Amino acid sequence: MIKSLLVSVLCIGMLFSCKEHPEEVKKLPRVAIAGIGIESSTFSPAQTHEEAFHARIGDSIFGRYDFFDEASDFRNRAEWIPTLLGKSLPGGTVTKEAYDSMVDKTLKMLKENGPYDGLWFDIHGAMSVEGLIDAEGDLIKRIREVIGTDVLISTSMDLHGNVSEKLAKHSDLITCYRMAPHEDAIESKARSINNLLERLEKGKGKPKYKAWIPVPILLPGEKTSTRIEPGKSLYGKIPALVAQDGVIDAAIWMGYPWADESRNHGVVMAVGDSKEQVTKTAEDLAEAYWEVRNEFEFVAPVASLDESLKLALGSEDAPYIISDMGDNPTAGGAGDVTWTLRELLARKEFKSVQGPSLIYASIPGPELIKEALKVGVGGSVSAMAGAEVDNRFAPPLLLEGTITAIKEGDRDAEVEVVVKIGSIHVIVTRKRKPYHQEKDFTDLGLSPRETDIVVVKIGYLVPELYEMRKGWTMALTPGGVDQDLKRLDYKNIKRPMFPLDTNMDTPDLNARLLSISNQLK
User: Fold this and answer.
1) Maximum distance among all alpha carbons in the chain?
2) Residues 251 and 386 in one domain
3) The model's pTM
4) 366 and 243 fall within a common domain
5) 502: pLDDT confidence band, cut at 50, 70 and 90?
6) Angstrom distance (rounded) from CA 34 to CA 73
């Protein structure tokens, strides 16, 4: 009895001791979350405004990622301070007003809730902003000015982003996707967080070395897919290299070819604690990248729209998918170029309802949406659509047909309408939307697997469409993300640049070791 009482008193004493000396209890690291992400084409006349980013503030950010569920390992390994996270569909240049508004909100929250041990910086890396030549570099520097140089920043990116020296300098840990299409996006983001937490938990702090190597190659994503060689083997080298002692992570960025900025080019980086291994890893990857530059090819057959249609109409299996590449909204196209749809509607094969079935996804048409909502499903509509933003290649198009479906409430499109014109089902939206999943079609009463031809504003096919296809051609159509880079009027990218300058000398691929401290200088 007395023994039990003594034990109880001892336990109570220990409890009070812990309260009196809280420093004896191991504290979780305080980690902020911030990021603004978009892929912006400066060759598109479109502009991107703040509402396109659907910015999440505070704890609502957790809902974007499964790995931040309340019971998840990540959630319980740190005291998280989420600020602002804005992610937009690819589009045109971001207005300075939109950028400043989101940045001001981010910095205000960071000031109010510091200090921090770490920051997870979740960006795309190809954001263009009016009046800036390096938006992400500007953003991370302004964040550094608020949180200080001692805070460990882990930057997570798309492999089609751009890593300027400024962005590399202010990032302590940095990584990007290793697959295109980006089937490893969530895995890559989780890796960037885990790298951050492990450094904080083990008290290791900043890595001792960062190697940055600009590689003068600029290619469209459709030529650098990791589904095929040489991209498959090139990115396949990374896991073994990062498994070495002294290397934390390494990455290859292909860069973004549809913005005319000096930072737009390939980059290789490695970070870690061994100068020798970090340097060698970065240089090995950069040299491997340069060596295979002539081997990159389009991931699928490429042809004119007319040639693509001949192949599709001659195919015995359905669906035959045609990528309307030039106006791909998931690469930065305006999404409302009418050129391809105009060509389709003019062809005699699709004039009759008995003609080959075709789905066209999609074209924005607010005027047609308004009329469709008046007449409803089954009603007839005659209204203009498309070319409100990008009318350089074809004017707005008059669509006359029968409404077969109306769907309201989509996050991107807001309202979707299907118009049957001859044997073509045209998907019209209030605002632009990419069509990547089978559900995007079936929710509108369409059956893409049973349709002869599906024309989608996309480049390389995302996994669901890729698995669905029975035939596939990427059509060289016009738009803000023209796949023929030699037709683009570059003025600001660094030259020489492969493949624009075919006779260029071998570039300097020696690693630039970036400083770790005094980063605001």
Assistant:
1) 99
2) no
3) 0.91
4) no
5) confident
6) 20
